[in-house]
């Protein structure tokens, strides 16, 4: 009987991915932005997210892991309790795109079966620019901007797909889009996701996210109904602070209320007035401290994420304080139908909290029109 060769896994982390999300910087591209985020108290979360993915591989036999030194992968392997061979060391403490690309080239030289990487759209673009379709890749979502189709829906989901491959299960392959947006335009409230190309990704639809739907909502009458119903509910309530999430559906509610809105940020209103504009995670905790709070949030079209995509200001600490019962989810039925039966997703960054949140949720889909839909 022929023994199966060890599965060769490459692990690569962009340690600064997503660092600007919690402090409302809308991204992490560029050394100046990363330094500003660190000065504002932002934490590097990508290594821990990769560790959560790797934990799914703990008991896999015949597994060889190759990675980059320090926070670029070695630390994640150590956190997950897995041994790894380090094949690249960055020259500077603050890594750049060139380090991601150089590490990827070294990993390719190890004849790896899968490159598991943690980052956002910028990281995916950097990898595409350097290695294109030379090997199969899978992204662990860790960035502020994730429009690309090369990412799993959650860190654990990425690990489960990698596990299927490592244990010899049949996993198909497909070409997934790599997209990235202009961060400067993003900070001005404009989303222009540019197509850069396609990379090879394992096909496991339960765990791999769809490319984010672009463009504006066309069902204007339905959107008006959702906005009118939700705005009435808010106007009749003088008790709660309302935290308004990002996205065009929430923007329509803010327009109905006659208030300025941060399309790609988080605002706070109380008694018909803005009391927080484009707040950071820490500012949100401070403004809502000891106050009754409700959250108005929509889902990302085509993906179904409620938390964890472009709204990292909604920290696990805030969500725990809020409670699922005070979460108001709004979306058109067309957006929900586009999921083709896939569940809504909570990816708060805290797996224990995500487990507590799972279960059916109520979604406002029109004027006094609501549906129940599963969420995980």
How would you summarize the topology of this molecule?
Elements: E1 7-13, H1 31-39, H2 46-54, E2 63-68, H3 74-80, E3 85-88, H4 97-108, E4 114-119, H5 121-131, E5 137-141, H6 155-166, E6 172-181, H7 183-187, E7 193-203, H8 220-235, E8 241-244, H9 248-257, E9 267-270, E10 273-276, H10 281-287, E11 293-298, E12 305-307, H11 316-322, E13 327-330, H12 333-337, E14 345-346, H13 351-357, E15 361-366, E16 369-373
Parallel strand pairs: 1-2, 1-4, 2-3, 4-5, 8-11, 11-13, 12-14, 13-15
Antiparallel strand pairs: 6-7, 8-9, 9-10, 15-16
Helix pairs in contact: 2-3, 2-6, 4-5, 8-9
How many strand elements?
Answer: 16
In the residues, how many domains can be counted?
2
Q: Tell me the overall shape.
A: elongated
- Unreliable stretches (pLDDT < 50, length at least 5) are 20-26, 214-218
Q: Give me the CATH fold name of the largest domain.
A: Rossmann fold
CATH architecture of the largest domain: 3-Layer(aba) Sandwich
| Category from helices, strands and their pairing | alpha/beta
Q: How much of the polypeptide forms β-strand, as a percent range?
A: 15-25%
Largest sheet: 7 strands, mixed
Overall pLDDT, averaged? 85
Number of helices: 13
CATH class designation of the largest domain: Alpha Beta
Characterization of this structure:
With 376 residues, this protein is an alpha/beta fold. It folds into 2 domains: 7-203, Rossmann fold, CATH 3.40.50.10330; 220-373. It has 13 helices and 16 strands. The chain has helices at 31-39, 46-54, 74-80, 97-108, 121-131, 155-166, 183-187, 220-235, 248-257, 281-287, 316-322, 333-337, 351-357, and strands at 7-13, 63-68, 85-88, 114-119, 137-141, 172-181, 193-203, 241-244, 267-270, 273-276, 293-298, 305-307, 327-330, 345-346, 361-366, 369-373. The strands form 4 sheets. The protein has a 7-stranded mixed sheet with strand order 10-9-8-11-13-15-16. Strands 3-2-1-4-5 form a 5-stranded parallel sheet, sandwiched between helices. A two-stranded antiparallel sheet has the order 6-7. Helix 2 (46-54) crosses helix 3, helix 2 runs parallel beside helix 6 (155-166) and helix 4 (97-108) packs across helix 5. The termini are far apart.
């Amino acid at each position: 009987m022929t023994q199966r060769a060890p599965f060769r896994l490459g692990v690569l982390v962009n340690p600064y991915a997503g660092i600007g999300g919690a402090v409302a910087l809308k991204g992490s591209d560029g050394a100046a932005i990363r330094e500003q985020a660190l000065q504002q108290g932002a934490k590097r979360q990508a290594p821990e997210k990769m560790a959560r993915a790797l934990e799914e591989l703990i008991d896999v036999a015949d597994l060889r892991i190759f990675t980059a030194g320090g926070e670029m992968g070695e630390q994640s392997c150590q956190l997950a309790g897995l041994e790894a061979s380090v094949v690249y060391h960055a020259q500077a403490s603050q890594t750049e795109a060139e380090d991601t690309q150089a590490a990827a080239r070294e990993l390719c030289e190890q004849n790896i079966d899968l490159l598991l990487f943690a980052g956002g759209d910028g990281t995916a673009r950097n990898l595409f620019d350097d290695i294109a379709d030379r090997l199969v890749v899978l992204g662990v979502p860790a960035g502020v901007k994730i429009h690309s189709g090369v990412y799993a829906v959650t860190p654990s989901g990425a690990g489960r797909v990698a596990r299927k491959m490592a244990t010899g299960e049949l996993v198909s392959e497909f070409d997934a889009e790599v997209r990235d947006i202009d961060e400067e335009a993003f900070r001005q409230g404009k989303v222009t996701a540019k197509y850069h190309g396609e990379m090879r990704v394992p096909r496991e639809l339960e765990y791999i996210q769809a490319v984010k739907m672009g463009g504006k909502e066309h069902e204007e009458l339905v959107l008006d109904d959702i906005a009118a119903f939700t705005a009435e509910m808010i106007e009749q309530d003088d008790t709660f602070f309302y935290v308004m999430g990002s996205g065009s559906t929430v923007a329509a509610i803010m327009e109905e209320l006659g208030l300025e809105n941060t399309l790609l940020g988080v605002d706070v209103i109380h008694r018909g007035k803005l009391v927080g504009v484009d707040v950071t995670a820490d500012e949100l905790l401070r403004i809502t401290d000891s106050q009754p709070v409700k959250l108005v949030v929509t889902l990302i079209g085509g993906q179904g994420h409620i938390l964890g995509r472009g709204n990292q200001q909604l920290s696990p600490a805030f969500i725990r304080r809020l409670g699922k019962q005070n979460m108001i989810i709004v979306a058109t039925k067309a957006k929900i139908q586009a999921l083709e039966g896939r569940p809504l997703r909570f990816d708060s960054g805290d797996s224990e909290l995500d487990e507590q949140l799972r279960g059916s949720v109520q979604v406002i889909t029109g004027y006094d029109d609501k549906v129940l839909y599963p969420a995980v």
